[in-house]
Amino acid sequence: MNTVADFDFIVVGAGSAGCLLANRLSADPDRRVLLIEAGGKDDWFWIKVPVGYLYTIANPRTDWCFTTEPDPGLAGRSIHYARGRVIGGCSSINAMIHMRGQASDYELWAQATGDERWLWGGPDSPGDTLAIYRKLENYFGGADDWHGAGGEIRVELPRVRWKILDAWQAAAAQVGISPIAEFNQGDNAGCAYFHVNQRRGRRWSMADAFLHPIAHRPNLTVYTQTQALRLLMDDQVHKDQRRGAWTTAQHRVAGVRLLKGGQIVDVRARQEVILSAGAIGSPHLMQVSGLGPAGLLNQHQVPVAVDLPGVGENLQDHLQIRTIYRIRGAPTVNTLYRNWISRAGMGLQYLLFRSGPMTMPPSTLGAFAKSDPALASSDLEWHVQPLSLPKFGEPLHPFAAITPSVCNLRPTSRGHVRMASADPLTYPKISCNYLSTDADRQIAVRGLRMTRQIMAAPALARYGPQELLPGLQLVSDDELQKAAGELGTTIFHPVGTCAMGAFDAHGRPRASTTVLDTDCRVFRVAGLRVVDASAIPTIISGNTNAPVMLIAERAARAIVG
After folding, report:
1. Which of 16, 314, 369, 400 could join 513 in a cystine, given CB atoms 3.0 to 4.6 angstroms apart?
2. Residue pLDDT, tens place only, 62-82
3. Domain boundaries, the chain
C-alpha cells in the first residue's frame, strides 16, 4: 500500500450528486479535487439513446446489479435493485423524468432538520428550494416564475406522443384527475406528460450537465474503475464551530483506501471526504469503515469507530404495482417492435430527427391523485407505459397493451441496508420491507381500484381494455393486497439511509435515524459528509434525481461558503 496523492476534497461516487460537487468544488483553481467512480466511462451508445435503459439496467457494465433480500411483502420474492455503476451514476441509466416533488414534501424536510430553508419558497416563505431548482435548470420554455434558463440541467418535453396515452389522460379526467401542464409547480395533482432530462432527443445525464464541461480543469482528477474500500481515520479531533451541534467529533476522516488497477492505494483529503455513492453504497462504505450501528459492526468483527445507529436504517422506496391491460385499435411499443419494418422506421426516425419511440423514457405519461380526499396533497402516482412485458428484461408481449403502474408516494414501511461481511467487496443485504404496514397495504388496494376506474372510463372504451394483471377475478381487499405483493416491484427510488435530521441543545440527534445535519455533515465524525439520496429524511413524492441535485447544490454552498 502507498499513498498516491493528497487532495483538498475527495468525492466518492461520480453519480448525480458527485458530478455536481466535482463541478462546484473545482471551480476554485486552488482546490485539488478527486472524483472516484467504481464504474467506467459513460461513452457507450446505449447510455445516450433514451430507450437504451433497456440495455443499461441489469447490465454489469453500467449497473451494480444488486438484489434485495427475500421480502415477505412481495410474496417472498427477491427483486433486482438497479443502481448506476458508471460515470453519471443513476442519471446515466434512469427514466430521465424531471420531477421536483411537491411543496408539502419540503415542509416535512424542514420539520425533520429544523431548517426552514428547505421549504418550497415564495413571497411569504423563507425557503429557497424553488429558487435553487430555477438556478439549476435550463428549461425548454425559458425562464418564468417556475423555471430557470441557463442552468446546467436541461429539461425538455418528450418527443413522442401516443394515441392510447392521450386517451388514458382523457379517461383520468373523467374520474376527476384533470389534465395539467406540468408536475413541477408544487402541487402535482393531475395528469400530464413528464418533462425529461434530454437534449435534442439524447439523454442529458448529470455528467453531461456538470462533469464533462469542466473535465479539463487541471485541479480536477477523476478515477474510474476504482472501488472505495474503506474510509481512513486519524485521531485528530477538532471542533467545527459553524453549527452548534457539531462539537462532539470522535474521529476525523482523513482519506479513502481504494482498489485501483488491481492495487490497494490510499488517497488523503486535507479538508473533507464526501460520500456520494448512493443510498446503498454510502451507508455500506461507512459500515465497513466502523461507522454505523455498534451491534451490526460487532457482529462482523469490525472495530467500532463511532456508534451511529441510523447508518443503513430508514430505507424508503416507492413500490410500483404493475397492472397490464390488453387493448386494440391503437399502436403501442409492442406492436411496433413486432414488425422489422416498423423497427427500422423507428431507428431511421431517431437518426434523422431525434424523435419517435427511441426517445421514449420508460414512462411517458403520469398522474397524481389522493387516495383519500381528506389528504392535503397527492399520495398516489401513476407511470403509464405504452407497452407491456411479463417482467423487466423479458420480451414484450406479442399483442398491443399498456402498463399503468401505480405507487404509494408516502410509504410508511421502512427497510435497511446492512453489511453482510467485513469485506467491502461483498454486497450488502438490502431489505426493503415493502407493504409491511397496514396503511401501505390499504393504499395499494385503493391504487388498484382507482386504476380500474380509470380504465373503465368512457374515453378508453373504443380501445376495449382487457385487464390481464392483476385480473378481474380478484375482487376483495385481501385478494388485491395479495396481488399487490405478487406484482409490486421497485421504481428505483431508495432514499433515507443516512438521513438528515435536527439536533437538540446538547448536540444530540432528536431521532435515532438521524446521521447528518442539514449541511450533510456526519454526526460525531469530522471531515465527512454524505451528499446523495441517503440524506433524504422522508421520501419525496415523485422521482428522486432532481431532489438529489437540490441537496448537492445546497451542500456545495455550505462547503465553499
Report:
1. 314
2. 999 999 999 999 999 999 999
3. 2-94+206-316+503-560, 159-193+319-408+433-493
